[in-house]
Design goal:
about 350 residues; alpha+beta; 6-stranded mixed β-sheet; 8 helices
Length: about 350
């Protein structure tokens, strides 16, 4: 096992692929690199992009598969192993502090310790070796407990799998572990995707909730989506600042935006068999903001209404409320905590 800073490859990536909106406008990034290869909500697309940029950056390995993980997976492993110490580094890494401790190490402490900037992420290799060594000494029952934790992370999209072997890829898709945007779904569809625009690691202190209302009683289905962002931090530090977000709302093809509140002027796009509305959203420290989006859906979606909501990887425990007004005017309300994709059969 080897761990590298993506910058080791990005410095060799040629300026050939233009960055999409709003990277040039907000981050002054003109060309895409490996670090930007997870911009799509569709993990197979991200995996292909990561592999392409890796080889553009003179990486030599040929891969059978690509695994995407979030920082939540580190927490999961440390829940199973218990706290660990890294030789040569201060402190103890446990599930409740490891992400913050690592962030401080690679952003601040390395300089205080006299570690060169190019070597500041070597601590990741050291930590991984310590964790793997501890796993190797686990009892069978402890390994079974770890396997259950990994299964849960797969179900939550904290681990996503992509394989070149079509049989393995099909198995990953059937298990719900491929992170693929469902392009075969023909009924109502919703996926909200947040992309942090230079707001450092502020996502860790952002709380979100969704409220989705659909009215099927009129000539065309009308939808109102409310997304509430709660910035729980009250002061700026080396990880946290005002939240700046590029929000994409993926909806059925043929949908039309009517209006929006608490978001900048929209941009529009079509990909993965869906239409999306895109907005820049600002949430200052310590404040809460509800973005409201009003749009109409294709008329035929009112017949035998069903809804699929797909979850963005890395965002868990999101409260979701759905309100459906049927053709007869009767209203039904549903409540979920989103830790995976949701299918609502009315």
């Amino acid at each position: 096992m080897q761990i590298f800073d993506s910058g080791n490859f990005d410095k060799n990536v040629s300026d050939t692929i233009l960055a999409p909106y709003p990277m040039p406008e907000t981050l002054h990034i003109k060309w895409l690199q490996l670090r930007d290869s997870n911009f799509s909500p569709d993990f197979p697309s991200d995996a292909a992009a990561a592999e392409k940029f890796y080889h553009m950056g003179q990486g030599q390995e040929k891969f059978d598969g690509i695994v995407g993980v979030t920082s939540n997976v580190l927490i999961s492993f440390l829940k199973a192993t218990g706290p660990v110490e890294i030789p040569g580094y201060p402190g103890t890494y446990a599930d409740e502090n490891a992400v913050l401790a690592l962030e401080y190490q690679v952003e601040k402490a390395f300089d205080e310790q006299g570690i060169a900037r190019d070597d500041r992420k070597d601590v990741m290799n050291e930590l991984a070796e310590v964790i793997l060594e501890k796993i190797s000494t686990m009892s069978l029952s402890q390994k079974i407990d770890l396997a259950k934790i990994i299964y849960a992370d797969l179900d939550k999209k904290d681990i996503q799998l992509y394989f070149h072997d079509p049989i393995l890829e099909t198995q990953a898709e059937q298990a719900g572990w491929a992170g693929r945007v469902d392009q075969t779904w023909e009924k109502d569809y919703l996926m909200t995707v947040d992309a942090n625009l230079g707001a450092w690691k502020t996502d860790r202190v952002m709380k979100r909730s969704l409220d989705y209302s659909i009215d099927l009683s009129g000539a065309v289905p009308k939808a109102v989506l409310k997304i509430t962002y709660n910035h729980t931090a009250t002061q700026r530090d080396f990880m946290t600042k005002d939240y700046i977000d590029f929000l994409r709302v993926y909806v059925p093809a043929g949908s039309e935006l009517i209006s929006q509140k608490n978001a900048d002027d929209p941009v529009f796009g079509a990909e993965l068999g869906k239409k999306y509305f895109g907005f820049i959203v600002y949430v200052p420290l310590g404040e809460s903001k509800t973005v409201e989006i009003n749009y109409i859906l294709p008329k035929d979606l009112a017949d035998n209404y069903n809804l699929k909501i797909q979850k963005q990887a890395g965002l868990n425990d999101i409260p979701v409320a759905v309100h459906v007004i049927g053709k007869n005017g009767q209203k039904k309300d549903y409540q979920f905590t989103m830790n995976g994709d949701i299918v609502l059969n009315k």
